[in-house]
Amino acid sequence: MSWWSDVRADLVRPEHPTDRHEAPFLIGSAVVVITLAHLDDPGSAAQLLLMAVALAGFVLRGLVPSLPAEVFAALVIVPVTLVVAPAGALETTYFLIVFMTLYTAWHLGSTIRAVLIMVAAVGSAFVPSDGFVWSPWALAVVFTFSLGRSFRRQQALTDELERARDALVVQAVGEERRRMARELHDVAGHTLAAMVLHVTGARHVLRRDLDEAERALEAAEAVGRSGLDQIRAVVAALRTHERGTDPALAGSEDLSALVDEYRRAGLVVTASVDAAAGLDGPVGAGVYRIAREALANVARHAAGNAVHLVLAVDEGAVHLLVEDRGRPAAAPDPRAGRFGLIGMRERALALGGELDAGPTGDGWRVELRLPAAVAAHDTAGAS
Fold first, then answer.
1. Mean pLDDT computed over 338-347
2. Which residue in 318, 310, 314, 308 sits closest to 360, CA to CA?
């Protein structure tokens, strides 16, 4: 039955152990209560011995973090009741029961166990005695029980907030690491792909056209220096706070320069960029980075293929297509991380869009689609 399952789940809820900083306060409070009661009513030797047992309960609770609440309650309720009930002697020591109820209600995760201890404490207040009114003490037990449960709920909420904060910190660290990986992969991948194309071209013409080979090597050197500057900029941005003076991120309007760079490196690229696709901000930077990664992949894996790049804006929605044709895509290496595809998909998802990438009959196709709402928001922010 479901109610029995709820009962069993409640009974096994953990009990918050006694912290080290709580022990002095716990033991000291019991000593103060017993001392004040003794000054008001010295009591007999047997009564003082019973008070020593109650004090031992507080000492054990303070020094043994895992001491069960029921043991603590019994060590306090039984001796105090035996002392106070017969004739109201050492009445002030009943504060030990009240204090014990507050503490167990605060630290017990199980509501059922806490209520049973509270009932036992209230019951001790109605043990018959001559000329003594126990009802105020019973009310004090009920009040402190309610106060303790309130403290317990507050502690549970605080613990939940701490766990949520820790989870957010872990998530933020993971997202920052993924962002760093994307940034460094984009810069290094693009730079190395362009350099390889230039160096390959220089090697092919080295024996028949030294001037052309020299120009190709100079272009490779320029690409390498540019890539090094970009890596330094990325590292500097990751090591410092935003200063408002960093260079602007490349946007969709820089696609023409990107295409020209790969053309100079030897890649055959035809491009069609919509004049209305002058996107800045996150969308423009995301479109540029995805296009750059797609071109770098072609340069790395199929440099002889012809590439067709299209960027269009249709009713506010952004559509980017990078497709190469010529040689079919090779089977993927299972050992390769394929971080470029992962990074492109992460960028698309971060922008609220979607990205499809995969082999075709004679090459590879990358297609990005961003919704009109995202593109319109980005364009408005840029203006």
1. 78
2. 308
Chain position carrying tokens 């009930």: 85
Domain termination residue (choose one: 97, 132, 167): 132
Starting at the edge strand that comes first in sequence, how are the strands of the sheet with 306-314 ordered? Answer: 268-273, 306-314, 317-325, 363-370, 354-360
> Mean pLDDT score of the chain, rounded to an integer?
80
Expressed as residue numbers, the domain containing 18 is: 2-132
Contact yes or no for 138/125 (Cβ under 8 A): yes
Whichever domain contains 261, its CATH number is 3.30.565.10
Report pLDDT digits (tens) over 77-111: 999 988 887 777 788 888 999 999 999 999 888 88
Structure tokens at 224: 């390498």
Q: Are 122 and 81 in contact (CB under 8 A)?
A: no
Q: What is the pTM of this model?
A: 0.50
| Beta bridge partners of residue 356, listed in sequence order | 367
